[in-house]
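Lab notebook, bench 4. Continuing the backlog of folding jobs that were queued last week. Each job is logged with the same field layout so the records can be merged later without manual cleanup. Today's entry covers SDR family NAD(P)-dependent oxidoreductase, a 246-residue chain. Filled in by technician R.K.

JOB TYPE: sequence-to-structure
TARGET: SDR family NAD(P)-dependent oxidoreductase
LENGTH: 246
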Amino acid sequence: MGEHQRIAVVTGAGGGIGAACAIALAGQYDVTLCVDRDIARAQATAHAIGPRGLVLQADAGDPEFGPLVAAEVARHGRTAVVVHALAYEEHASATELTRESMMRSLTLGPVAAFSLFQACATDGAALIAIGSLHEHAAFRNCLGYNAAHGALGQVVRSLAHEWAPRGIRVNAVVPGWIETPGERDLYGAEHLAKASAGLPFGKLGTPEQVAEAVAFVAGASYMSGSFVTVDGALSVSLARLPGEPR
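JOB STATUS: finished
OUTPUT FIELD FOLLOWS
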């Protein structure tokens, strides 16, 4: 391994979107570091990548999360792109939501992203957060997740502003409703099948479609502070008057 090798880092690489991003980026960089607290899932993604796929077990809730990832990157080369594909979502009314749940959403989302980006930032690197429509749309019973993505948006904007002189590009890719193992666990396959029919495209998006945008943003050399929406026109279809037909 040489110090000049370009490393792609993907956190949450054992999840649906994270795994798709790691696989999509693997052909563009010398090494792809698959980071996840579930080592078996990270290893599955690295196996799909092949010899250029490496694994790091790390928990985004750890205060040393960012430095831990950066130290592993330094063992193999230098940061070229970092993708933070982690979040915590609990569905609960605002009267029932616990402080612990709120803090977990904030910790695994904007706080971990900041720690990761700060530790891994090298001149010319591309830093990408996987955002959410929840940044602007205050969906019911999702206060913690809404708040976390609102804060994550400001992490992206602030770092893009501050680090532009270093040529560091900070962007977000914002998925709509994507069919992932997490969504199936949260909603159930039957509910997802019914809900997908009401989406503008008549179907859920796929992790691979999100990864396509991530790969594009990673290579877009004059893009920073941008939010690339991958939602099949969902966000522009949310505004409706009462009683208005679809």
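OBSERVATION: The chain has one domain: 6-176+214-229.
SIGNED: R.K.
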